[in-house]
Structure formats: C-alpha cells, structure tokens
Specification:
This protein folds into two domains: 116 residues, Type I PLP-dependent aspartate aminotransferase-like (Major domain) (Aspartate Aminotransferase, domain 2); 111 residues. It is 41% helix and 10% strand. It has eight helices and seven strands; from the N terminus they run βαβαββαααββαβαα. The strands form two sheets. Strands 1-2-3-4 form a four-stranded mixed beta sheet, with no helix packed on it. The protein has a three-stranded antiparallel beta sheet with strand order 5-6-7, covered by helices on one side.
C-alpha cells in the first residue's frame, strides 16, 4: 500500500491527515501482511529529519525520497526495514546516473546542514510568518483566500477560483506562450532552510517581505481571475 503523509493533489487544497488515519492504515497493513510505503518525495526533509511519517506518528516499511533530499540536485532514494533487504536484492533495476557523485555529495552536505542549523524548525517558522503575512495582506485587499498545508509546504488558492483548476492550467499555458507570466496563483510553496528576509524590520509582517508590496496580491488575484471572467 502506498500513501502520502498528507493529501497534496495538484491544483487542490492540501489536507492534513485526520487523527487515527495513518495509524489505522498501519494496522491494516500489519494485520494483513501488506508492505506500507510512504511517498515522501515532496515532503521528505521538509517536515521532519526522520521522514514525514515521524511527524504524523506512522512508521512505514519503505519510504521514497526525492526533491529536498539533495537540495535540488537530481537524486532519489528508497529506504526501508532490514527485513525487506533480501527481497530488494532480488529486484533488478538500473539507472543512467548511478555513478553521479555530485548529487550524492550535495545530499550529504544538505542533510548535514539541515541538522546543524535546525533547518526543519527554521522552515516551519518561516512558513508561519509567510502565512501570517499573506493572510493579512489578503484581508487588507479584500480578497478571500484559502491557505492550507503544513507551514513549510503551504498552498494558497483564491476562493473565486474554486473548481476552475483546468481553466487556470489553460491560462498559464497561454501566458507562457506569450512569454507574459511564468506562473499565476495558486501555487504550492516550498520553504527552504536558506529562505530569510533580506531586510531587518521590527514587525513580523515586514519580515515576510509582503507588507512593503501591497499591490502584489492584487496583481496575482487579477491574473488568476481573468481567465474566469473571459470564459
């Protein structure tokens, strides 16, 4: 059985697992001899150094990692219980980049830095500040938004765009074709250990860098709404 630590389908608001869901999945797998695999490709090394399962209280049999494990370098990994090693050895697989040393070195350096600097906590704190700033800015602009997901991997949508994922995708393609807009909201944001304010300020919202540009969220909202008005 393959499960993600929380629901983060593309184009839809994120949903954190309800209490008892992951532990219930774990019990079903244990009772029926099923291998439980955690898809931690997106969230791994962003929520907990031991894998996202640790944050939500669930120990998988296998866990897959990618993305943040090497700080953007092309690398994926699968970790599992000792009891599955023999079975893994009987599966043949190969890859074009097995001998690439740079992603391996980048991953080791990345994990070491995350541990030394408390990177997971820093991403959580930065995510909380970003949430506070964006929601405050949306309120000041009179724009209704929905903000979901864990602090380090937030996802924001505009209420007026509800149910129009396909329209937004088409709008992005048209803007890319015109070389006008790289990407319009909503957007999944990945906070990193290196994210920090370039300027010192007294208020928390100033540290998000949002309050200094009150027109930004209005501009994003207008880009998001425009394909809907033109339908």
């Amino acid at each position: 059985m393959i499960v993600s630590p929380f629901k983060h389908d593309a184009g839809h608001d994120s949903e954190l697992p309800v209490e008892g869901f992951l532990s219930g999945v774990r019990k079903i797998c244990d009772d029926n001899g099923i291998v439980l695999i955690l898809d931690d490709v997106r969230a791994g090394f962003r929520l907990h150094m031991g894998g996202s399962g640790e944050l939500f209280g669930m120990r998988p049999d296998l866990t897959t990692y990618c993305k943040a494990i090497a700080n953007g370098y092309p690398l994926a990994a699968c970790l599992g219980r000792d009891s599955l090693k023999q079975a893994a050895q009987e599966v043949f697989f190969t890859g074009s980049y097995f001998t690439s040393a740079v992603p391996m070195a980048a991953s080791l350096a990345n994990i070491k830095e995350l541990q030394a600097s408390g990177g997971i906590e820093r991403m959580r704190v930065s995510g909380e500040k970003l949430r506070t700033g964006l929601l405050a800015q949306a309120r000041s602009a009179g724009i209704e938004v929905k903000y979901s997901g864990p602090p380090a991997i937030p996802y924001m949508t505009f209420n007026a765009d509800a149910g129009h994922f396909e329209s937004r995708q088409g709008f992005r393609r048209r803007m890319l074709a015109r070389r006008s807009v790289l990407r319009a909201a909503p957007q999944l944001v990945h906070l990193g250990r290196a994210h920090r304010s370039r300027h010192r300020a007294d208020s928390e919202r100033d540290r998000t860098g949002i309050r200094r540009r009150p027109q930004t969220i209005r501009r994003i909202a207008s880009l998001s709404y425009s394909p809907l008005r033109n339908r």
